[in-house]
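Deliverable D2.4 — example input (structure tokens):
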């Protein structure tokens, strides 16, 4: 088992590259996003952050976006990391119906997650908010409403990360109001 943070970063980078995934609006290497999520977790958490959380932050999108399975992650990085990634992975499928239905299903999944996964989810939300607001204001209006509902089920997460997420979403809403 190669359970180091650098191995998780390299594994995630390769997984995203293998499917040609880049950041949607900037086309920069996708790995920049999970690294930023991990860095937000480290910089803003009011509690200690475990290596398992750091690895899960780096791997949080690989099951959703690439051919990597939770079994692959468990085999390579252990059960704790795989469980965190499982909690961070959307459970809805396009066949579940309209976006509203799918997002409700994903919200219920996140609500049941352990605090360690919720903390990573807050960092993911924080990093994505500014990109989406800057590059796609129309979608940002919908996305920010969905994330406001998400914050409600993350209310038991790290207080510093929760405050950062609330502040970021409010700043993004303010930017959108100014663009009208």
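Example output (designed residues):
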């Amino acid at each position: 088992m190669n359970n180091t943070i650098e191995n998780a970063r390299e594994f995630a980078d390769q997984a995203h590259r293998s499917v040609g995934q880049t950041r949607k609006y900037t086309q920069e290497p996708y790995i920049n996003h999970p690294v930023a999520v991990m860095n937000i977790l480290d910089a803003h958490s009011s509690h200690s952050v475990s290596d398992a959380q750091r690895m899960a932050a780096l791997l949080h999108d690989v099951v959703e976006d690439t051919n990597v399975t939770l079994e692959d992650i468990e085999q390579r990085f252990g059960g704790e990391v795989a469980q965190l990634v499982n909690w961070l992975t959307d459970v809805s499928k396009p066949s579940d119906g309209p976006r509203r239905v799918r997002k409700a299903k994903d919200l219920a999944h996140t609500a049941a997650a352990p605090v360690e996964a919720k903390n990573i989810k807050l960092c993911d939300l924080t990093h994505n908010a500014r990109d989406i607001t800057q590059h796609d204001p129309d979608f940002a209006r919908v996305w920010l409403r969905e994330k406001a509902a998400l914050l409600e089920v993350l209310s038991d997460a790290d207080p510093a990360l929760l405050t950062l997420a609330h502040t970021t979403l409010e700043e993004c809403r303010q930017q959108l109001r100014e663009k009208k």
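The mean pLDDT is 95.
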